[in-house]
From TrEMBL:
The gene is cmk. Keywords: ATP-binding, Cytoplasm, Kinase, Nucleotide-binding, Transferase. It holds the Pfam family Cytidylate_kin. Transmembrane segments: none annotated. Its EC number is 2.7.4.25. The keyword Transferase applies. Belongs to the cytidylate kinase family. Type 1 subfamily. Its main location: cytoplasm. It catalyses: CMP + ATP = CDP + ADP; dCMP + ATP = dCDP + ADP. This is Cytidylate kinase. It comes from Nocardioides donggukensis. Gene3D superfamilies: P-loop containing nucleotide triphosphate hydrolases. ATP binds at G10, P11, S12, G13, S14, G15, K16, S17, S18.
Length: 218
């Protein structure tokens, strides 16, 4: 049904993005990557030479960049002031700065409004850290994905073309700590979420588990 929203939360490297895109493609739903929105906001801060560790400066700049988010699960395009930043937001400088930027309340408020606009009437899989808890608590299907830190680092390092494993795991754990510890909308398992530890499963198995949860509510 068109009011369907599938909320998928969890830490980095838990398999959220691949799972969310796979579920959306399997069910013919749209897809929203809210992490990409926080990355795009961070990219704009770096472009405009805002000190990302100065929460006041970041907050004052949060309304400036114009952002658009595509919802095609096969290749969502994200733009900042008309420029396609889909590739640039994955670079290490953005990854290193995204968690402090995401902790700033004005950034979260701005993106919350954009996220709710995109979700609209539903028919969408939405992935992030606070979708089931804050952005769309009324979602009929909520999933919380986790995996062992070593499995998460292995996946992320493979995605990044063979990056150093120990360094990747350290960077994931550092982001978890900031994301879980912040005052506004911290990473948490939402009430009513199905917790799936993806460590022992293949991607296709996890997609199958989530598709079954969606089919059970429809
Ligand atoms: O999902 P991804 O790893 O691309 O997210 C990048 C960062 O964006 C996260 O580490 C977190 O700081 C922030 N984020 C957030 N809330 C969301 C999605 C992402 O704070 N809903």
């Amino acid at each position: 049904s068109s009011t369907l929203v599938v909320a998928i939360d969890g830490p980095s490297g838990s398999g959220k993005s691949s799972t969310s895109r796979g579920v959306a493609a399997a069910l013919g739903l749209r897809y929203l990557d809210t992490g990409a929105m926080f990355r795009a906001m961070t990219w704009a801060m770096l472009r405009d030479r805002v000190d990302v560790h100065d929460a006041g400066a970041v907050g004052a700049h949060a309304a400036t960049p114009r952002l658009t988010s595509g919802t095609d699960p096969d290749g969502p395009t994200i733009t900042v002031d008309g420029e396609d930043v889909s590739a640039a937001i994955r670079l290490p400088d953005v990854t290193a700065a995204v968690s402090p930027v995401s902790a700033v309340p004005e950034v979260r408020a701005r993106l919350l409004e954009l996220q709710r606009e995109v979700i609209g009437d539903g028919g969408i899989v939405v992935e992030g850290r606070d979708i089931g808890s804050v952005v769309w608590p009324q979602a009929p299907v909520k999933v919380y994905l986790t995996a062992d830190p070593s499995a998460r680092a292995l996946r992320r390092a493979a995605e990044e073309g063979g990056a150093d494993l120990a360094a990747t795991e350290q960077s994931l754990l550092a982001r978890d700590k900031i994301d879980s510890g912040r005052a506004t909308a911290p990473l948490t398992m939402p009430a009513g979420a199905h917790h799936i530890d993806t460590t022992p499963y293949t991607l296709d198995e996890v997609i199958g588990l989530v598709v079954a949860l969606v089919e059970a509510v429809e």
